[in-house]
Write a structure and sequence with these properties.
The chain is an alpha/beta fold. It is built from twelve helices and seven strands. Helix 6 links the parallel strand 6 and strand 7.
Length: about 250
């Protein structure tokens, strides 16, 4: 996800002044740096010394080791670690302002959704505004209570994969009915993009009613999805994702 954020910032024109990367796999860091016009640092201490904000994107189990290598100090931290509460992050970096953020994959094209945990009153107000503004170049930014962040992640961070699976299955169904596969995929992508735009201003049920008059082909399709357990399948996906966070 950090790579997706970097790609989004690189294309925004008003992202960070510079981006520095450090990874156990130096070749991977170098490839991403070359792609987005960034630089590589060979160790975390030099990365911290040359940065005013650290984007923490490691496996949650590696948090303590990474914090130790950083000498448990940082100018400011944006954490995108799943299932890692603010209290745990603050303990890893005592005294550092920490903003817990959950982005989704469309940040790479600056159409993402980024949820962040509302910080307490000790978080510097000016810094919060600056970090939120930087995140806003990647898409829509939403403040949530920490008690809601896992459910928010299950809905918005995981869902691009569900939408992609839906698009893939729908395009395959179109191809099975004789459409050229590339054309079917193009038609589905356009329909999904247009519907996403409608959803910004219209209720999903209203869109459904507008497209599916009684007795029509769309109603028949919706009935088939209901019979196949479409809505329940999505509920199960959210529940399964939440189980992994707990």
């Amino acid at each position: 996800m950090a790579a997706a954020m970097a790609r989004g910032w690189a294309g925004s024109g008003d992202g960070p002044e510079a981006m520095l990367f450090c990874d156990l796999d130096r070749a991977r860091a170098a490839a991403l740096a070359a792609e987005v016009g960034g630089e590589v640092r060979d160790d975390l201490r030099s990365l911290r010394a040359d940065s005013d904000v650290l984007v923490l994107a490691v496996k949650p189990a590696a948090l303590d080791d990474v914090a130790a290598e950083l000498e448990r100090a940082a100018p400011a931290v944006i954490s995108i670690l799943a299932a890692t509460p603010v209290a745990q992050l603050a303990a890893a970096f005592p005294g550092a302002p920490v903003l817990r953020v959950m982005p989704n994959q469309p940040v790479s094209v600056r159409e993402g959704v980024l949820c962040y945990v509302r910080p307490d009153d000790r978080f510097p107000a000016g810094l919060q505004e600056r970090l939120v503004a930087m995140l806003a170049t990647l898409g829509s930014v939403v403040a949530v209570d920490e008690s809601d962040i896992d459910a928010a992640m299950a809905v918005m961070s995981c869902s691009p994969a569900y939408v992609a699976l839906f698009a893939e299955a729908l395009a395959d169904a179109g191809a099975a009915e004789g459409l050229e596969p590339r054309l079917a995929a193009e038609l589905v992508a356009g329909a999904v993009a247009g519907t996403a735009e409608l959803l910004r201003s219209e209720d999903p049920a209203a869109i459904r009613r507008a497209v599916a008059p009684p007795g029509g082909a769309t109603e028949a399709g919706l009935d088939a999805l209901a019979a196949a357990g479409f809505s329940r399948a999505l509920e199960s996906a959210v529940e399964a994702s939440l189980e992994r966070f707990r």
